[in-house]
Amino acid sequence: MYIANVIDHATYRHLTKPTSLAKHRATSLRDNLSPPEQLLWSYLRNNQIADLPFRSQHPLGPYIADFYCRDARLVIEIDGKTHQADQLTHDKMRDEWMQSCDIHVLRVQAHEVFAELNAVIQTIRSIALKRAQDIKEHKPRSSVPPRAPRGGGSAQGGVGGVFRATHASANMPNQSQTEALPIVPPRALAGRWAWAKPKVGGVFRATHASANMPNQ
User: Fold this and answer.
1) Given 5, 8, 55, 128, which residue has the most CB atoms within 10 angstroms?
2) Which of 91, 93, 69, 73 is nearest to 82 (CA)?
3) How far apart are the first and last CA of the chain?
4) Are strands 74-79 and 176-182 parallel, antiparallel or unpaired?
5) How far apart are CA 132 and CA 2, in angstroms?
6) Would you write out the chain's pLDDT as a tens digit for each of its 216 residues?
7) How far is residue 121's CA from residue 114's CA, in Å, rounded to a whole number?
8) What are the DSSP calls for 85-149, one per residue?
């Protein structure tokens, strides 16, 4: 179950940000878990499965997942007979939305939780571990562009104690000027800065000698 294109974390958080209504409904649903949900939750809570954190009745966008693991982007849904008959169309729409958000939906029948609990737990463990590992190794990059430096310019480190600064010229809007700024050692600034003895850990304290404020 390799994840070919992992959505970056910033985009994922934006897509799955819960609505106010979903958050309100999730709060009430946590206090009214069905018997199969209660049983499965007793095995999922407190990081019992592969040390992965699961959440119960977790809001995702406009929907609410029975159980959710963020590290694996995994949703577990427990389906009963009434659930299948009344909400088949709704479940399909929700599954398609979650898949578009890079969330894998694992549906478990309510009777399977009681009759085949060990098999259900092992399936959840296997899928969650694989997906969490794939997401971690993929290291998705953020789609947010890098912040531009102040003044519309950029800075690059030079060689041999020279710092190259590129800035946009006001007189030449279509061009840029590049100038080499030598890094001046502290002793060369004796006329403007008075350097005190180093403190503990090699940290220096500088006192500015102001022409207008001779006592500083």
Assistant:
1) 128
2) 91
3) 68
4) unpaired
5) 10
6) 445 467 888 999 999 999 999 999 998 899 889 999 999 999 999 999 989 999 999 999 999 999 999 999 999 999 887 655 567 888 889 999 999 999 999 999 999 999 999 999 999 999 999 999 999 887 654 444 434 444 444 334 433 433 333 333 344 444 444 444 444 444 444 444 444 444 444 443 444 444 444 454
7) 11
8) HHSHHHHHHHHHHHHHTT-EEEEEEHHHHHHSHHHHHHHHHHHHHHHHHHHHHH-PPP-SPPPPP
The two most distant CA atoms of the chain are separated, in Å, by 87
| CA pair distance 99, 74, nearest whole angstrom | 10
Residue 16: the pLDDT is 94
Spell out the residues 6+ positions from residue 65 whose beta carbon is closer than 8 angstroms to its own: 57, 58, 59, 75, 76, 77, 98
The answer to whether the beta carbons of residues 60 and 68 sit under 8 Å apart is yes
Cα dihedral: 176, 180, 183, 184 (round 10): -110
Strands (E), 129-204: 154-157, 162-168, 176-182, 193-195
Q: Give the global pTM.
A: 0.60
Please name which of 17, 125, 110, 128 lies closest in space to residue 69, comparing C-alpha atoms.
128
> What is the chain's mean pLDDT, rounded?
73
Contact 9, 140 (CB under 8 A): yes
Q: What is the per-residue DSSP string for 37-63?
A: HHHHHHHHGGGTTTT---EEEEEETTE
Q: Let me know: does 176 contact 153? Beta carbons within 8 Å.
A: yes
